[in-house]
TrEMBL record:
Protein's name in the database: ABC transporter ATP-binding protein
Name of one Pfam family that matches: ABC_tran
GO molecular function: ATP binding
Domain ABC transporter stretches: 4-229
Keyword annotations of the record: ATP-binding, Nucleotide-binding
UniProt cross-references to PROSITE patterns, sorted A to Z: ABC_TRANSPORTER_2
Length: 292
């Protein structure tokens, strides 16, 4: 069982702390969603994990071995990001051949299907690809290389809605036939909410949530009804957001409810991951977040 562990990792650029004492454990065969507002530090963290950027403090290990300058461990991860690692003049088929030399087995069967479904021509030169096809090509590499940790930073950048749907369905298909660990960093929370098993929220370089999606959603409660009743019922609870609709008030609670019976005037339901993300990342703006 391969586990990727991030321990006490910190990174600053000049006087700005970008990653602050981050501890994370990525277990085998899970699909993690790494979420965070612009500038939260997601790309920096993924670059540190894959040894493309050096941390000031802390370490990244796979199965208890440090990954820094450790080719056998680095070869277990593939980071797809908007940074292009391939020469503009290289043909896509050549990049696939070179990647296969570097990583070992390449799933040509899956690649052929993806090439066909996305309609990409492998005789093209990398530098001539449109933004969307640049992402599509790198996604094909990510899904077909024999790595245990597939790390995707903004995977659907530039993809149209049809291609995004196709990618999500192919990702799930590929995961089902060949379970491994995926880390998806994205702003399109609604699109990945049903795909990811675990959610990690990074805010100003700190982890403010790290849980199975199911557990996180089970702690979301929207309490709707007359303003006074809502306020009374949610007093003392962890109210992370509020909405007003005329005389009707919605208070959004994250955490456990207490044993008080729900008054007849109030309606209780759960709310979704995107709302939770917005509330938590607004709440902690400039403040001191707590893990979980
Ligand atoms: N090479 C660098 N030099 C200086 N500052 C940097 C560098 N790389 C990143 N930063 C800063 O670190 C912070 C985090 O950037 P990062 O790209 O990791 O965030 P992100 O969460 O991926 O953002 P986005 O969602 O907007 O892509 C930002 O304030 C950014 O300006």
């Amino acid at each position: 069982m391969s586990v990727l562990e991030v321990s006490h990792v910190s990174k600053s650029y000049g006087s700005k702390s970008v990653i602050v004492d981050v501890n994370l454990s990525f277990e085998e065969n899970k699909i993690y969603g790494l979420l965070g507002r612009n500038g939260a530090g997601k790309s920096t963290l993924l670059n540190i994990i894959t040894n493309r950027t050096f941390a000031d403090d802390g370490e990244v290990k796979i199965d208890s071995e440090n990954v820094a300058d450790n080719d056998s461990k680095l070869g277990l991860m593939y980071l797809m990001s908007e940074v292009d690692l391939y020469p503009n003049g290289a043909k896509l088929s050549q990049i696939i051949a070179d990647s296969e030399l570097m990583y070992g087995d390449f799933d040509h069967h899956l690649a052929d299907r993806l090439v066909d479904q996305f309609g990409i021509d492998l005789s093209q030169k990398f530098g001539k690809l449109s933004t969307g096809y640049n992402s599509i090509f790198k996604l094909i590499l990510a899904l077909c290389l024999p790595v245990k940790f597939v790390i995707l930073d903004e995977p659907v950048l530039g993809l149209d809605a049809n291609h995004r749907e196709l990618f999500y369905s192919e990702l799930l298909d590929s995961y089902a036939t060949n379970p491994r660990t995926f880390i998806l960093s994205t702003h399109l929370i609604e699109e990945v909410a049903n795909i990811i098993s675990d959610v990690i929220i990074l805010d100003q370089g700190r982890i403010i949530l790290n849980q199975p999606v199911e557990d996180a959603l089970a702690k979301t409660h929207s309490v709707v009804g007359p303003r006074q009743d809502v306020e009374q019922y949610t007093k003392g609870l962890n109210v992370v957001g509020r909405d007003n609709m005329g005389n009707i008030r919605a208070n959004y609670v994250y955490g456990d409810l207490d044993d008080r019976p729900l008054p007849d005037t109030l309606q209780l339901s759960n709310f979704d991951l995107q709302k939770l993300f917005i509330f938590l990342t607004n709440q902690y703006e400039g403040g001191r977040p707590n893990e979980n």
